[in-house]
Amino acid sequence: MSPEFNGLLTATVFLPAVGAVLLLLLRGNRVIRGAAVAIAVADLVLALFVFALFERGADAARFQFVDQFAWIPDVGLKASYLLAVDGLSAPLVALTGLLGLSAVLASWRVSTRVKEYFFWLLLLQTAVMGVFTALDLLLFFLFWELELVPMYMLISIWGTGRKEYSAMKFLIFTILGSAFMLVAIVAVFLTPGVGTFNLIELSATGGVLASAATLLPLSWLFWLFFVGFAVKLPTWPLHTWLPDAHTDAPTAASVMLAGVLLKMGGYGLLRVNVGLFPEQSWEFAWVLVALGVISVLYGAVVTIRQTDLKRLIAYSSVSHMGLVLLGIGSVGVAGGTLTATGLSGAAMQLFTHGTITGLLFLAVGLVYEKAHTRYIPDLGGLAGRMPFVAAAMLIAGLASLGLPGLSGFVSELLVFLGAYRAYDWPTVLAVLGIVLAAGYILWMMERTFFGARRERFADITDASLVEAAPLALMVICIIGIGVYPALLTDMFDTALEPMVRAINGG
Amino acid sequence: MVNEALVWAIFLLPLGSFVLIALVIRPFLNRWPLLAALSTIAALTASTVLAAITLRSVIVHHGAVFLSWDWLSYGGATIQMGLLVDPLTAVMLVVVTSVSLLIQIYSVGYMDGDPGLARYFAYMSLFTASMLGLTLSSNIVQLYAFWELVGVSSYLLIGFWHDRPSAAAAAKKAFIVTRIGDVGFLIAILYLFFKADDFAAVGLNAFHIPDIWQAAQPVAAGAAVLGGAALTWMALGIFAGAAGKSGQFPLHAWLPDAMEGPTPVSALIHAATMVAAGVFLVARFFPVFQQSVEAMAVVALIGAFTALMAATMGLVMNDIKRVMAYSTVSQLGYMMAALGLGAYHAAIFHLVTHAVFKALLFLGAGSVNHASGTFDMTYMGGLRKYMPATYILVMIASLSLIGIIPLAGFWSKDEILLAAFDGNAGFADWINIVTFVGLIAGVVFTAFYTVRMVMLTFYGEFKGGVDQENADLHPQPAASAQPHADAGDDAHDEEGGHHGGVHLAESPLVMVAPMAVLGLGAVVIGYVINPQWINFLGVPIHWVTGFVADGLHVATGGEGHAKLPDFDWQMAGISTAAAVAGALAGLAVYGLRRDPVREPLRILGPLYVLLSQKYYIDVLYENLIVRRSFYRVFAALANWLDRRLVDGVVDLVGWFFRNIGSAVARLQSGQVQAYGTAIALGSLLIILGFLLAS
């Protein structure tokens, strides 16, 4: 554990938090807004540096930009401050930067308690960045929990509808999940011969946990972690907080929630469950696949019934996050023949769903702001009034239903290719989800944007430049990744290949 | 040599036109929408020339495969974007570029004044690029990608007038129904990746199309990589995708509704090119299909059934575009049946001739609409006096469709019927007989509905066009109390209003000229490009059919030239007799009727209703399955369970703890962090418990 300090990640993670504190010193809503945008832009630049400077070559280090020093060395906890990224987390850091800026821009019209609002929003970004970069389990857990506070505040203060109920529900679900996770973390640490929270050490040897007489059976640990992450993902049947939280959250919080917070669950599954417990992952892959297929189909069927635009997208997220589970479940292939396809698809799905759903929520936010309703039967004919928003929504929708050329297709394809090798019939069932997705997306488009123009919406205007900017940003990502996916998959694979080897060799 | 850059350019030019219109012309120069038309037409002109050059070099050099770009690579299978240029591709390239070019020119006249003109040409460019990409793909994933892009272009163009609820609904229906078929296609791809290691073991790439052909061939040294029941299922999966795009039963229901799009779109996409993509797909994987008699039998039977069924529905439609739509479904059935029978050459030949005469028919319908303002044939009549050029051109296309010698359709349809007459040696007799009977009966009905269409549109007295239609649609309540028995065409008032009122005159030159070119094609491309007895005007005997058949022959490892059947007078006699019989019946019924308004076929009673209700298949799908069973019962139940059961349990747990909590609430600070700490402490206690226990 030699102390190293690169500094880039520390800056990326804490810049928004520091900025949030500095915001408190400012006065005037316009100044605060401008400062928040500047901070978000700066953090995006840093995040893009992380992404772009990450070395992809075959002989490049697996974990890069390491920031490490002993943190609590004396009380026997041996927790360290350890930030680093590998090919799995670097794209997610970039994603967080992108969505963070989009969320700030989407908050242009927030007018109540502006200072506080941006404070929480920026703090949230630090927490999520921390989750994706912390490679010390204790630090990881701290960031994981830190994220709850700002999100709770954002929903319960700036939300709509039953906002207090939804915020509390979100909080309780996640905390219950984290309780399981904490038990597992402590049990890992207390295992004789382990005595570290360092994820790199825990996973690098692969065998530290397998060979040690753990405090709890390894399969227990696997499931304890799983519950913590599954709530966040969320997977059926732990998903019911999601529609409520999404629907009642303000636009920016929905964007962050769907775009990056859910990804923490999938990231955790890959990093911790697959990374630390390769054998258990292989053994229990069928459960993941079963839950994944149920989430995909159940989520899609329920989505079709929704009449609130945000609820509709929320349920579609349940369906799409099921694909992450299905992709991870691909590890259950007959021994020794695993390829990174499914895992890469799962990781890809985290990124692409972040941009796609982020875009969907941004667009819906604009619709709500201008039409003052999200109730689908009251909408219609908006394409003529707001062609840019309609086009952005259509592109996001098409990406969501897996149109080739857009990013959603790549992740779906990889997940299906990988999972079919391990579980053919369940995968075939999940493929039926693409028909349902086409159904709910296109029907939503038809009822919201197409059809006769309505008198009531006669003076609705299209997105302004500030409003359009984050949408355009997401559209560029969606098309870029869709056409040139190797940009991300090359990176994911550097992190996933060692996991694949561990499973194949184990 | 076939030049790689040149072939890429065929695809990239229309794509570039799309990007140019979408990013520059539409946002900034929308005041001059003709720039968009110019961009599209210029790109397609160049593409057409390049396609012709490519065809020439394929004739000389047989074709080539270029692997241009490793897109993704996993587990020994690389998804390589590339170009597969073989005779099939070369023929398709010429058909797609040239028909598309003519239709874009026509569109300048037809769409004149539409506020969405730039958007229209952007979509048209995107469609053409996707279609070209589809025909060029060397990789099954790449093919699937363009397949879906073609689907989405079709969605955008059907719903082009998105203000109309019926257009938006039709666009959605088209996409979803075709996607049901695409599930099969996608699963076939998944299966290929499943076998990727076996492919790699013999040095093949599971996604590379020529490798898939090779893997399906029975190898002397052992079992083929693909084979047995799995190969049949894979072929059927691909066929499911093809059936969706080509409107084969039971996935045909979307195509007639797709006529909600602008008429040039119907001509290009829903008649000449995209719907033929299904036929192309089966042809592309023909070396795989050939290895499974079962799959071939399914293709043949579905094709023949669709050919007949769609033709019967075409008998009673009053919307001219719907008659043509069912005609298209029916003709695609012929092509599919030909493939199933093993007559690859005949299917492709018919694809080519059909593209020309059916595009012409649709453009004729657009021209007729330009004059009468409506698509409802019961409000037309007598138009030959007002628009002689359109009349003559539609007549040529109609006779070609009916299969009258010496027009293009005769030659290609005859090849199919001959193949059906000879049958597929692998099939049980009943399959061959059923297929042949279905196809021959289809010829009779085809002739009948075509004659009916021509008679209603061009003969008799003019019945007022859109003006009369509007007067009938919004009259006293008495008239609406009697529902339209011919509810088959709910498109009635849709596109009708587009061009304003009636102005009985020939369409402008910019519309008639492209039609004339297609008319010339409908006359010559049957015999001239495929002479039957001797080399003709320097074109060798059986040129087109021989060209594509040789391509297949080489792909499956054959030497020299493929053997093709010679022209058969007996078969030509039978098919002509069937066509003439149907045509005469149509002439008799519509030429001799006394009441010009009442539909003579109503005499069929319940059968007429059954046909005009499209065998109630749409009702079954939309009303019974989707709306009543799936949406109102199944999805509603799932939604209810989610609220009541899954979430209900959560709320119950919450309620329980709230009440417990109120008892100990005074201990709590109410701080979230405190709860978290308590949970953490509790967890530690549990661990401690385990420690003590062990």
Major sheet of chain B, described briefly?
2 strands, antiparallel
Strand content of chain B: under 5%
Which class best fits the helix and strand makeup of chain B?
mainly alpha
Structural class of chain A: mainly alpha
Helix content of chain A: over 70%
Overall pLDDT score of chain A: 89
Q: What is the approximate shape of chain A?
A: globular
* Main pleated-sheet profile of chain A: 3 strands, antiparallel
Tally of contiguous helical segments of chain A: 22
How would you describe the overall organization of this protein?
The complex is a heterodimer of chains A (506) and B (694). Chain A is mainly alpha-helical and 506 residues long. Chain A contains 22 helices and 3 strands. Chain A starts with a strand and ends with a helix. Helix content of chain B is 69%, strand content 3%. The relative contact order of chain B is 0.08. With 694 residues, chain B is mostly helical. In chain B, helix 1 packs antiparallel against helix 4 (117-136) and helix 14 (293-314) runs parallel beside helix 19. Chain B has a two-stranded antiparallel sheet. Classes of the chains: A mainly alpha (506), B mainly alpha (694). At the A-B interface, helix 6, helix 7, helix 14, helix 18 and helix 19 of A face strand 1, helix 5, helix 6, helix 26 and helix 27 of B.
